[in-house]
Fold this sequence. Notes:
The protein has 399 residues and is of the alpha/beta class. The chain has two domains: 3-142, Roll (Thiol Ester Dehydrase, Chain A), CATH 3.10.129; 149-393, NAD(P)-binding Rossmann-like Domain (Rossmann fold), CATH 3.40.50.720. Helices cover 40% and strands 22% of the residues. A seven-stranded parallel sheet has the order 8-7-6-9-10-11-12, with helices on both faces. Strands 1-3-4-5-2 form a five-stranded antiparallel sheet, covered by helices on one side. It starts with 18 loop residues before the first strand and ends in a 6-residue tail after the last strand.
Amino acid sequence: MNDRKVRWACLEAIREGQEATIREKITPELIEATARITGDHNPLHVDPKAALRIGQSRPVAHGVILLGLVSRLIGMELPGPGSIWFENEIEFLSPVYPGDEVELTAKVKHVSPATGVVVLELQGRKVPGVPVLRGRSKVRVSTLSTERNESMVDQGNVAIVTGASRGLGRSIAEALGSRGMHVVVNYRSDESGAKDVVQAIESAGGTARAVGADISDSHGTRQLFEQVMKTFGRVDVIVHNATPPIRQKPYLETTPEEFRGYFDTYVVGLHELVRLAVPGMQERKFGRIIAILSSYIAEVPTKLAAYITGKQALHGLCRALAVELGPWNITVNTVSPSVLVGPRTDDLSIAAREIISRKIPLRRLGRPDDVARTVAFLAGGDSSFVSGANIPVTGGILF
């Protein structure tokens, strides 16, 4: 069979109440071939005189012939090629003889998008109308749309990168833009920096828009989402990088407001954005959600209690989302960088940088583009079976 001519089963196109029907003439040649293939030479099937002695006017067709027709109906018509028939309850109602024409019908009784299972009601009759078979089957469908999504190129996907006006967020936005994604450069206050990122992406041939919004606030998150939908009409990828200023402070001096600030940005901000975007992802059976954590969730330093608590809570949220959203082909992962070259390292002396570098097996500090390339992998089609993972981008510091 030429695969290019096969119309593969598509779960999204199957609806309750949908039907398909096939007809087949039962010939002596078909019965003989079935006996030869199965080894079932029961005289009831192949010997007219024996069939008469048993009480049948002529040989009775093998039941497996009808089951084969059911298999053909399921495999070629409904749901169609690529589906797997894994459970059935079949009742044979009357014998089928050579010369009979039988008609089999499958009707969809239930569709489970989460598991890809279709439940069929089966009916068989002789033409013009004597019932010969009835039953119920379960079929698992590997849909074409899911296959396409898992191997799809990144061209045209819409990605929101929060906190993308500078630093690591900028590198991530540019990396996604270079892969053909439409990038939404989110910022809270640095409009000039966000516009610079957009210009860099567009200069490289990509598409980007800057959208200002404070995602620690539910109203701001909704504004961001609505603006993205107005501009691009969809959200395929969310990269959550936004953060309040990271300040070291002894725990006993840390205020409840500082804990809430990190929690609202990291956890509530992502929750609100995901809650708005996921219905569209579920409908398309595709989504990528990536949150930026830190190696500090494992190697805990002092004077960062509020920051680390917020990141740990974000980690827990992402693990929960990975489990709950997985049935819709939505992956959720986190990336944990170690210290990166940037504003936090600018004031370090050469000696201090050397000391930090020597603790890293690769003997250098990480760069924002090291993290950005990892995020781009998780955001694209090549990471289709990676979900619930925390990927350390640390140069070999394991945790």
